[in-house]
Design goal:
Largest sheet: 6 strands, mixed
Shape: globular
Low-confidence stretches: none
Number of strands: 6
Order of helices and strands: HHHEEEHEEEHHH
Helix content: 40-55%
Length: about 240
């Protein structure tokens, strides 16, 4: 088996490749499968109302569908990458319905308690109707285990670091049920303030290796300057203290 290296001394790079291959390799195989049927009424209405060529709308709809699948896959990828941290353990189906917890003997620095983590790709991933159920689950785990529970929102709603109580509609603030951004979560997981940014910079090389693993050529070189601007526009420079 070929060994993989991406210039990230703080993570097991071979396992990083294996995690990416597990999550994204399925998507490369799925591209050859039968796509879901389009909604012709919506496509025609969109073309008319926006005064755009119908073929352009059809192409956009196909890209949008694939982007939605990829966004869901990215959330799972973050969960599994965070699970490579020596500070965290991925729980799978036996974790009371959450993704990660602190490894045995590891305590959250501010709280001196163990932690449970539910990982979501974006701050708005959870449907409003489901937020109370997620909050209740996180509170139960914190209360039952003398712990603090976190909803990790990798992509924050604003460019600021945060580690604060998570209070969805219908629930009251509880210091044991919190949310944080991706920079803050990765900084704790790998004891490295710049971990998420470094991972982002290495991601194109990781995904090229996944493509090659599945018999595809490496992709066209990414536009590094634009990629850096995209990251800077979304993420805070430093984690929440």
């Amino acid at each position: 088996m070929a060994m993989h290296a991406y210039g990230l001394s703080w993570i097991d790079e071979q396992r990083l490749f294996e995690v990416a291959d597990h999550v994204f390799g399925k998507m490369l195989s799925a591209r050859n499968g039968k796509p879901l049927p389009p909604d012709p009424f919506t496509l025609v209405a969109q073309a008319k109302l926006l005064d755009e060529p119908l073929q352009a709308i059809v192409d956009f709809d196909d890209l949008r569908s694939r982007n939605k699948l990829l966004s869901n896959a990215i959330g799972l990828w973050h969960q599994k990458v965070l699970g490579l941290s020596p500070r965290l353990t991925e729980l799978g189906s036996n974790g009371g319905g959450v993704d990660l917890r602190t490894a045995p003997g590891v305590l959250l620095p501010t709280w001196e308690k163990p932690g449970y983590f539910e990982v979501k790709n974006r701050f708005n991933t959870i449907k409003a109707s489901d937020e109370k159920d997620v909050w209740d689950k996180l509170k139960f785990l914190a209360q039952s285990n003398g712990a603090v529970s976190y909803l990790v929102q990798v992509i924050p709603g604003a460019r600021e670091p945060y580690d604060r109580p998570w209070v969805p509609s219908g629930r009251t603030s509880d210091e044991r049920v919190r949310c944080c951004d991706g920079v803050t979560a990765y900084a704790f997981a790998f004891d490295r303030p710049t971990a998420l940014h470094e991972l982002y910079r290495a991601m194109p090389a990781v995904l090229d290796d996944v493509r090659v693993e599945h018999g595809l050529p490496a992709a066209v070189a990414s536009e590094q300057e634009l990629a850096e601007r995209l990251f800077a526009d979304v993420f805070p420079e430093k984690p929440a203290v």
